[in-house]
Design goal:
Strands 2-1-3-4-5 form a 5-stranded parallel sheet, with helices on both faces. It has 6 helices and 5 strands, in the order βαβαβαβαβαα. The chain has a single domain, classed as Rossmann fold, CATH 3.40.50. The termini are far apart. The chain is 58% helix and 15% strand. Helix 2 packs parallel to helix 3. The radius of gyration is 16 Å and the shape is globular. By secondary structure, the protein is of the alpha/beta class.
Length: 142
């Protein structure tokens, strides 16, 4: 299971506990405690693990396979939207469950074409949202 893993969360205790667990299992773990750190580190990872929506968005935009810990419906809604199905509710997370999800995500790193397609879908959704926002702003202008 050794791979590069980004664990991003603003809860330092949880982030550090997870980092320690996966380092003991031979993973090269980097931690991010905020959005800017997550953005900077996400492109260097094989897999991203987060319960925070923005960290998942940043990693998805860089084509990194995602593992989500769902604390709020917006997290699994985003993951479903970008066809990333490796997530579990916070209350169901165990070390074994996380390990299995991360191993499955690491397997996905081998299929670069599929990751590129998912990234392209995210970029297209962003383009559509930007256009819709511009239309709304134009309609509201005096």
């Amino acid at each position: 299971m050794p791979y590069k893993l980004l664990i991003a969360d603003d809860e330092r205790d949880i982030t550090d506990m997870l980092a320690s667990y996966f380092r003991r299992r031979g993973c090269d773990v980097l931690t991010a405690y905020g959005g800017e750190e997550a953005i900077a580190l996400s492109a260097r990872m094989d897999v991203a693990l987060s319960m925070r929506l923005h960290a998942l968005i940043f990693a998805a935009a860089r084509g990194v396979p995602l593992v989500g810990v769902v604390y709020d419906p917006k997290v699994n809604a985003f993951l479903d939207c970008v066809d990333q199905d490796l997530y579990a509710p916070l209350e169901e997370i165990t070390a074994d469950r996380l390990s299995a999800l991360l191993d499955a995500a690491e397997e996905r790193t081998r299929d670069r074409a599929a990751l590129a397609a998912k990234t392209a879908r995210l970029v297209e959704l962003e383009r559509i949202n930007r256009e819709q926002a511009a239309l709304l702003l134009e309609e509201g202008a005096p």
